[in-house]
Please model this.
Amino acid sequence: YYTEDMNQSARQWMELKQQLHHALSAGQLELYYQPQFNLQSGRMTGAEALIRWNHPERGLLPPDLFIPIAEETGLIVPIGSWVVRTAVAEAREWRERTGLELRLAVNISSRQFRYRELLELLERVVDDSGALPLALELEITESSLIDNPEQAQATLKRLKAMGVKLSIDDFGTGYSSLAYLRNLAVDKLKIDQSFVRDLTSSTDSRAIVTAIVQ
Model:
């Protein structure tokens, strides 16, 4: 049924779609970093890069408002390339300032993961880094790995050969299978927050998280 809310939402989508083409070249995209800690030592070991759009009229926009648009239009490829290059450059700067080996995690969309541009981009980043280790971790969704398992496995092996760490994001909510974990070169599982959030109140969530951690 038609409502004014639907009309307003569609209009906003079209406006953002047109403006997103300009956002990257205008320097409106920014990275924010969520620190990651080792719970045993208490030390900061890395951070996750979170993209935001500093819109000149709407203010700071979260990714769920514009990443689907980027996916639809194909802009996710140049935006994703900018995120990777920026994160790697800032990780090196932090290491020079602090002496800490901090690893930055970057989310990779399923569309990015399927395209050769990702491998080519990372090969260029590795070449630019020279002898410096690549302090980068790619977060990939389960659906990216399931769509074409053979191609995914080949891509993961090439990424690992470059020194990239790999993690599966939102683990436990998609096509979770412990069987394919034996065949994939994955370093980390990120348990979906829906399980972690209920750890203190749900015995089911506690059992699931314990099994995954083990």
About this structure: The chain has a mean pLDDT of 83. The radius of gyration is 19 Å.
